[in-house]
């Protein structure tokens, strides 16, 4: 894993913390005037070795390689603890930070616990503050021996001072030691909480991105399927209605040409029928062009669009549908389009097949659903026998795409009722 790939890692902010810790350690060692030049350069060398090891973390996914790499980092830290290097705890924290970039959460907890136990062990075996405490004790003894006569008269005997000073110094040293232990444990706990928070946010963002991608994919598929179904429906309509009308028109015109000389009166009747077929073909073309509109109510609401369909139906069939529309203004756009297309297809079927004298369009809305009913008193049919009707199948698929319910209630010579219930 190169530095560039780490920078793209969700925990890349830990890399900045590592650099800050290295800078603090180097500043501490360079400014330490209480040790020899050789020891100072040796400590700086240990820090440089650990920094170089962090330039390239193991790219191998095998757990054993990562464990060996972690152990290799701990070895120079143990050497630093043995020679009583002061910022050993910061070196341990750097190892913990790198483990977050290598291991899963289960193994990170093991590494963090092991580092804490190792820190306690090295702090007891190699207490780097021992020399400082002993020198302070010695200095304190000399200072006490150099007190003024008045002070010496009020103080305890030298034997008492020699018994109390080591105890006080030991308590002070233990206090420093446990203070560092609690501070080190607090830092490890804070890092663990920080890493868990970062990874939880990353996981949530990934799930959200996947969900958004799925929604976009489903929306595109639904749009493509809807467009494909609409194109297929229009192609079927053109083939079945317009093609049939134009074929019949052509036959009538040919017959009229043949009869124009022999039977002029018969030829006139054929031409009248041809004119009627031409009007039907023109009506079919208008319906197909109207169906091609992507948003049939871009400049009007759904109620106005359905009323326009009813007016067009009256113009073509001399029959005015009765509309009872209870429509709120906040229906989803997808629901509006489906309701419009169902009414359009139902009126087309009534015009072609029903021969009805009454058509009723009803839309009722409730808190969680909208219900559409298109009823006619025409010839009717048996729904189970009509398995090839593309229009009916298209209506059913549209409603089911919104988890709705679709039903056809019809019997021969008893009319037909189309029911669509769509959840809102």
Count of alpha/pi helices: 13
Number of strands: 5
Name the average pLDDT. Answer: 76
Helix content: over 70%
Distance between the termini: 51 Å
Strand fraction band? 5-15%
Question: Order of strands side by side in the largest beta sheet?
Answer: 1-2-3-5-4
Unreliable sequence segments: 1-8, 129-164
Shape: rod-shaped
Biggest sheet record: 5 strands, mixed
Structural class: alpha+beta
Cα-atom Rg, whole angstroms?
Answer: 45 Å
List the domain count as a whole number: 2
Spell the H/E element sequence.
Answer: HHHHHHHHHHHEHEEHEE
Structural notes for this entry:
It is a single chain. The protein has helices at residues 3-7, 12-30, 37-53, 63-82, 88-102, 105-125, 130-145, 149-154, 158-262, 264-291, 302-317, 333-354, 390-401, and strands at residues 322-325, 359-365, 369-376, 405-410, 416-423. The chain is α+β, with helices and mostly antiparallel strands and 424 residues long. It has two domains: 3-213; 299-424, Histidine kinase-like ATPase, C-terminal domain (Heat Shock Protein 90, 2-Layer Sandwich). A five-stranded mixed β-sheet has the order 1-2-3-5-4, with helices on one face. Helix 12 (333-354) links the parallel strand 1 (322-325) and strand 2. The model is unreliable at 1-8 and 129-164 (pLDDT under 50).
């Amino acid at each position: 894993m190169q530095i560039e790939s780490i920078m793209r890692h969700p925990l890349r902010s830990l890399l900045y913390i590592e650099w800050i810790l290295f800078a603090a350690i180097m500043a501490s060692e360079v400014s330490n005037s209480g040790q020899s030049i050789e020891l100072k350069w040796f400590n700086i060398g240990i820090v440089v070795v650990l920094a170089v090891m962090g330039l390239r973390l193991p790219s191998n996914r095998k757990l054993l390689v990562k464990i060996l790499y972690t152990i290799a980092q701990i070895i120079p830290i143990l050497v630093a603890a043995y020679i009583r290097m002061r910022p050993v705890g910061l070196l341990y924290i750097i190892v913990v930070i790198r483990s977050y970039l290598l291991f899963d959460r289960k193994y990170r907890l093991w590494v963090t616990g092991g580092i804490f136990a190792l820190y306690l062990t090295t702090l007891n075996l190699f207490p780097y503050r021992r020399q400082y405490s002993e020198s302070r004790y010695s200095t304190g003894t000399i200072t006490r021996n150099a007190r003024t006569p008045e002070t010496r008269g009020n103080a305890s005997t030298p034997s008492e001072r020699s018994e109390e000073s080591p105890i006080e110094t030991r308590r002070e040293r233990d206090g420093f030691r446990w203070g560092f232990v609690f501070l080190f444990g607090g830092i490890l706990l804070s890092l663990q909480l920080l890493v868990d928070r970062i990874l939880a946010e990353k996981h949530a963002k990934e799930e959200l991105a996947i969900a958004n991608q799925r929604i976009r994919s489903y929306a595109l598929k639904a749009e493509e399927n809807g467009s494909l179904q609409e194109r297929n429906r229009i192609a079927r309509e053109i083939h079945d209605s317009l093609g049939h009308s134009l074929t019949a028109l052509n036959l009538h015109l040919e017959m009229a040409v043949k009869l124009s000389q022999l039977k002029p009166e018969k030829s006139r009747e054929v031409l009248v029928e041809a004119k009627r077929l031409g009007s039907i073909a023109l009506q079919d073309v208008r319906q197909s062009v109207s169906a091609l509109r992507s948003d049939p109510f871009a400049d009007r609401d759904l109620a106005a669009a359905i009323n326009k369909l009813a007016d067009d139906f009256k113009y073509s069939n001399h029959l005015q549908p009765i509309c009872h529309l209870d429509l709120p203004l906040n229906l989803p756009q997808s629901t509006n389009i489906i309701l419009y297309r169902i009414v359009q297809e139902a009126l087309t079927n009534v015009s072609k097949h029903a021969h009805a004298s009454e058509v009723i369009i009803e839309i009722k809305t409730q808190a969680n659903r909208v219900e559409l009913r298109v009823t006619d008193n025409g010839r009717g049919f048996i729904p189970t026998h009509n398995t090839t009707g593309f229009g009916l199948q298209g209506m059913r698929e549209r409603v089911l795409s919104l988890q709705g319910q679709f039903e056809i209630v019809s019997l021969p010579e008893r009319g037909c009722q189309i029911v669509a219930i769509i959840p809102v």
